[in-house]
Design goal:
By secondary structure, the protein is of the alpha+beta class. It is 32% helix and 32% strand.
Length: 154
């Protein structure tokens, strides 16, 4: 098992549009399926209630790391930390990075989640598997979100 997940997708939307979908907390929540409480700020925690069916009991929590306009957005979190009876705070979080590159037709979005080697062995494989599947779905979600908006403007 690798210690990282990487997903790439070419989006038919300008970098500025994809950046907004990633860093505006309301827009992020729309496609990521979480009702985030406040705007993202580097160094600050972000939290909200997950709205994805079957996970409504989970509070999404992350710490925003970097917001380099139209290039890099990153946060740390505890992967697949969905058991509300478990305190994940002693675990080393993984790092999620969203990198944007302009292309001839829009934007290349590269999402990387790294640090699975530091997740406790008892839950590492499950966290990796669930997040690998989750990022596959999130790539579809953000594509629908930004491309639907882009089509409406044409």
């Amino acid at each position: 098992m690798s210690d990282r997940i990487e997903k790439r997708i070419e989006l038919n939307a300008p970098v500025s549009r994809v950046w907004r979908a990633l860093t505006d907390h309301r827009e992020f929540g729309e496609w990521f399926k979480v009702n985030i409480e406040a705007p993202f700020k580097p160094g600050k925690p972000a939290r909200g209630q997950i709205t994805h069916p079957g996970y409504e009991h989970v509070t999404w929590q992350a710490t925003i790391q970097k917001m380099e306009p139209e290039h890099l957005f990153s946060f740390t979190w505890h992967p697949y930390g969905i058991d509300k009876n478990v305190d994940y705070s002693a675990e080393t979080p993984t790092l999620v990075e969203f990198r944007l590159q302009p292309t001839a037709t829009g934007t290349l979005l590269i999402v990387t989640e790294s640090g699975f080697d530091k997740v406790p062995a008892s839950r590492r494989a499950e966290a990796f598997r669930m997040n690998d599947n989750g990022w596959t779905q999130q790539m579809v979600n953000i594509q629908r979100h930004v491309e639907a908006d882009h089509v409406e403007q044409d």
